[in-house]
Amino acid sequence: MIELGLSRISRLLQQTPLSWKAIHIAGTNGKGSISAYLSHLLTTGGVRCGRFTSPHLIDRWDCITIDERVVQESLFRQIEARVKLRDQTLGIGASEFELLTATAFEIFNHEQVEVGVVEVGMGGRLDATNILNNVLVSVIAKIGLDHQAFLGNTIEEIAREKAGILKPGVFCVVDGTNCVEATEAIKHRARELGLDAIPVYPDEPDRQLPSLTRLFGKLDLQTHQKANMSCAAAALKAVLPQVRPGLDVDTFIPHLASVEWPGRLQSITLEPLATRKEPVLLDGAHNAQSAEVLGEYVNRKLRVSGNNVTWVIAASHGKDIRPLFHSIIEPGDDVATTSFGPVDGMPWVKAADPDDLSSCVLDIQGIGKVQSFKDDTVGAIDWACSRADGKPLVIAGSLYLVSDVLRYLRAAKSG
């Protein structure tokens, strides 16, 4: 169950002063990538760095890393047990995410990290991570419509919630590609706090960071990737002098090229889970904005020479699936609909009915073959591999579906 608010996390961490400084990142899309970029750059610069993102990808503890390595399961379970015992003893009744947040923060203490890169779970103002009072820089990534039941029905309302992470005296970086409504809401909150919210633009890289311009010229990047890298570079520029005075920020920027963020435009091979030898695109796009990014990539990279695309899709229950899938699936495409399994530590997350997904996709005029597979994701993949016959295949619609696929693939390789 999702319960926003800071009272429970405050009690959980009341006797646990945080021994590290934080970079706090909010947004609808891109905050995970920015977190990955910053963690990589800081670690490269010799700063002991922790990273906390959500949701987890394969295992519940892989959302916490120390110097780019997933925390050991034994340490995670040890500290999680301590946090849960405190919750029970004090009768706090913390949510699963609050328990996870407290666990991550205490692991950072235990591991003596210098900087923790912390991604907001949902919103910002009332998110458990907003208990942070030791923030070096705040970052607000791209904002779109998501979690409206909790955050508001307009971009402006959602942006106000995201801007709730801003704190007096703390430098703020904002993705300049945000729409006017989001930008104005963020600027308004910044003015209330006496802050400058500095927008960064992917088409106008920082002149003090010439390596960023060179990187953009060398790599084939989409606009959102440049925007996320620009936000990370601006945040690093603000943070590094505070933790490693004298280091030249610009020398670290080329390392952005080697960062991989699993589940986002990720190319994988399905063997031995399936017989297909050709690569498959795996992407956790789960809202209209991220689907637009995926659609642009698929059109540019996969729909060459008139190729149709075969899809395996799932979605979370309650999502507005029409704008999600109608923006990426085109006439002539084949589609397998399925559902993801239970999400460890997030029992409230349920999958949409694959039959409902099929009905939605069948509304696309000229659509190819559509097949529902209920909870048989492996069966959906086998069918899709057969239909694609070596041509483009994309698995998308939910990070939880991505997680299941990677988990099945790991089990197939180890079995």
From TrEMBL:
Enzyme category, top tier: ligase
Catalytic activity as recorded in UniProt: 7,8-dihydropteroate + L-glutamate + ATP = 7,8-dihydrofolate + ADP + phosphate + H(+)
The organism's place on the tree of life at top rank: Eukaryota
Alphabetical GO biological process terms: one-carbon metabolic process
Keywords from the named record: ATP-binding, Ligase, Magnesium, Metal-binding, Nucleotide-binding, One-carbon metabolism
Pathway: Cofactor biosynthesis; tetrahydrofolylpolyglutamate biosynthesis
Gene3D superfamilies: Mur ligase, C-terminal domain, Mur-like, catalytic domain
One GO term describing the cellular component: cytosol
InterPro entries: Folylpolyglutamate_synth (IPR001645), Folylpolyglutamate_synth_CS (IPR018109), Mur-like_cat_sf (IPR036565), Mur_ligase_C_dom_sf (IPR036615)
Documented EC number(s): 6.3.2.12
One MF annotation (Gene Ontology) recorded for this entry: ATP binding
Entry similarity comment: Belongs to the folylpolyglutamate synthase family.
Record's protein name: Dihydrofolate synthetase
Organism: Aspergillus calidoustus
